[in-house]
């Protein structure tokens, strides 16, 4: 459902000489405080370990905030009596446009019956890809700059 809504991929014939990255389903049970299962979740991920550097991806680096910086920020927010909000971006990586051409195998059990030998050409990042965190960082950075934020120099 998220893949269709976010226009993540398109089914194409397998081009000659490309590396096809496998896919795998990850299943998880969401529980409440008492430990009772409230929802079953599944996520399709790319088997990024089969990607070839320089072929399937170039940049993988994405900056991460240091714990000390987060503590300092929260401490200053408390001192100055600021409200701090937290958010979670649903299916974050499925929003990020890929710079590279990446092809993934059709998920097992969900093969297209009319084109079982086709593969998916990714338009957007998929969890498990080596470059997915970098693509998300670039997407978020562009959004923040377009919204009026200014990139710091430190």
From TrEMBL:
Cited InterPro entries: DNA/RNA_pol_sf (IPR043502), RVT_2 (IPR013103)
Superkingdom of origin: Eukaryota
Annotated SUPFAM superfamilies: DNA/RNA polymerases
Membrane-crossing segments per the record: none
Protein name, entry field: Retrovirus-related Pol polyprotein from transposon TNT 1-94
Organism of provenance: Noccaea caerulescens (Alpine penny-cress)
Coiled-coil stretches noted in the UniProt entry, renumbered to this chain: none
Annotated Reverse transcriptase Ty1/copia-type domain residues: 6-151
């Amino acid at each position: 459902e998220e893949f269709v809504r976010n226009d993540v991929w398109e089914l194409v014939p397998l081009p000659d000489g490309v590396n096809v990255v496998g896919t795998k389903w990850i299943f998880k049970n969401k529980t409440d405080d008492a430990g009772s299962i409230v929802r079953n979740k599944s996520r399709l991920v790319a088997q990024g370990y089969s990607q070839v550097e320089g072929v399937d991806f170039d940049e993988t680096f994405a900056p991460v905030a240091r714990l000390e910086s987060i503590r300092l920020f929260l401490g200053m927010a408390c001192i100055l009596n600021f409200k701090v909000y937290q958010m979670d971006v649903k299916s974050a990586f499925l929003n990020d446009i890929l710079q590279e051409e990446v092809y993934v195998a059709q998920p097992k059990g969900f093969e297209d019956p009319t084109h079982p030998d086709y593969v998916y050409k990714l338009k957007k990042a998929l969890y498990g890809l080596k470059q997915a965190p970098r693509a998300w960082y670039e997407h978020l950075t562009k959004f923040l700059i377009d919204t009026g934020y200014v990139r710091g120099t430190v």
